[in-house]
Design goal:
By secondary structure, the protein is α+β, with helices and mostly antiparallel strands. It has a domain of 202 residues: Ribosomal Protein S5, domain 2 (2-Layer Sandwich). The chain is 41% helix and 21% strand. Strands 5-4-6-3-1-13 form a 6-stranded mixed sheet, sandwiched between helices. Strands 10-11-9-12 form a 4-stranded antiparallel sheet. A 3-stranded antiparallel sheet has the order 2-7-8, sandwiched between helices. A hairpin with a 5-residue loop joins β7 and β8. It is globular, with a radius of gyration of 21 Å. It binds alpha-D-galactopyranose.
Length: 387
Amino acid sequence: MQVAELKKEFENYYGKGDCHIYFSPGRVNLIGEHTDYNGGFVFPCALSFGTYCLIRKTNDSVIRLASLNQAKKYTLKLGELTQPLEKGNWANYVLGVIAQFIKDDLIPDCGADLLFWGNVPHGAGLSSSASLEVVTGVAINEEYNFKKDQLSIVKYSQTAEREFAGVMCGIMDQFASGMGKKDHAIYLNCDNLEYELVPIKLDGVKIVIGNTNSPHSLDEGKYNERVAECRAAVEAINPSKKIANLGELCPTEFNSLSGNIKDELIRKRARHVVTEIERTQKAVIELKKGNLSEFGQLMNGSHDSLRDDYEVTGNELDCMVDAARKIEGTIGARMTGGGFGGSTVSLVKDEYVDEFISKVGAEYLEKTGIVADFYVAQIGDGGKRIE
Ligand code: GLA
C-alpha cells in the first residue's frame, strides 16, 4: 500500500485533516540465533517491509487504535494505558510500549488517533511484533515530544514484548527494527549493546527469505522453555565458575565445564548457544574478508545446531533448508528467528535465484503440502518518521 492510500484510510477512520506517518521495519537474522538472551552476538538486518503508524493528536482524552490488518478497534482512556488487555489482543503490543513511557513519568497529556498497517507476514519469524512495538515507540516519542533516544525506545519495546505479550525475548528484534541501516547488518553484542554496522556488499549474491507459512507462535511456551533451559545451564555451571550468562563461555571453556550439567538435554541447549556465538563471531570476520562461502558454511552449521542441539527447527524448516541446500547456487541456508515454523534465510547466487524459488518451493510443497512464499531481501533503515 502506498503512503497516499494509507492517508486516505486514516481519513476514513478518523476524519479529514493532517496526520504524521512513521515506519519501522521487520528483520531477518543472518546468523546468531537464540544467543541474544544469553548475552551473545547476533547479526540481523532490518528489512524494507515493516509496520506503518499514522497518528494525529486530538483534544480529547482517549487513544483510539485501529489496524488495517486486524478487525478489532480500541478506544482507551488515557488512564487505562498501563495494564495489558486479555491475551490475544493485538493492541497489547502498542499499549505495552506506551506503558513504558508512563512508567518513566512521560504521560500523554492528550488523546490521539492511530492507524497501523504492516506488510511483514505475520508469524513468519520476521519480527512483525517488534516492528509494531518500535513504530509505536518512535511515533509516541516524537508526537508527545518525550525526547527519549532510539535505544530507549528499543528497550521499551523489548519490555513491552515481555510484559504485555509474555515472551521472555532478547533484544535482537527490537534492536534491529530500531537501529537498522540500509544495506548494513548489525553486529550486536547483546551483553553490553555495543554494535557495529557492517556493510552488506554481496556481489552477485542475494539474501533469499523463504516463508514456510507454518506460523510460529512464540507465546506458546516453547520459546520461554528454551530461555529457562539456558538459565538452568548457568545454574549448573555456577558452582565451578560464576557466570551470569552462557555468553561468557567460549566453546573450549564450555567443554571443560560441561560435565557440571548433568541433564543431557540442558547440556545440548547450552552447547548450541556457545557454539552459535563463536560461529557468529567467525561469520562476521569472514564476511568482512569477502569470504562468502565460509559465511555460508557457518550458516549451515547454525541450522544444524538449532536442529540437533536446540531443537527449534521442526519438519517444515528442515525440509525447506534441505531443499535449499540441493540448489547448486546456494551458498548457505538456515532457519531465521525464533524457530518452530517461520522462515529460512539463504544466500543464493544471482543466476540461481529463480531456480531456487521454483525448485525449493516445489519440493517443499510436495513434502509438506504447504505453499511457501519467497522474498529477495532488501535491507532498509530502522524506525523513523517518514512524513
Ligand atoms: C525471537 C526473539 C529474539 C531472539 C530470536 C532467536 O525472534 O524475539 O529475541 O531470541 O527469537 O534468536
